[in-house]
Please model this.
Amino acid sequence: MMLEAHVKIVEGKALTAPQKKDLLNRLARIEGQLRGVQKLIALADTPLDCDAVAQQMAAARKALDRSFVQLLTASIVTQTSGAADLPEARERAAHLAAMLDKFA
Model:
């Protein structure tokens, strides 16, 4: 994918490089969906065109929601497994649970 040419993926403690690559690919597909929605809006002529726009917007929103869940799932796996001990794993899991509560 062309994304890799523009964004350098670094290994870290939050997410692994493959997890980052997967998320970036998902976001690139969503970005393409949104460009398609913009074109549909620009070309909208009949009431049925608005139906198509709404359908595509809902699909993009759902894809973004799935990406959010994927981010949290990957974070839970990576951050808790990389913890030095059980208390640190619990602390990291609690932080991610709070993030889920705040943003979901």
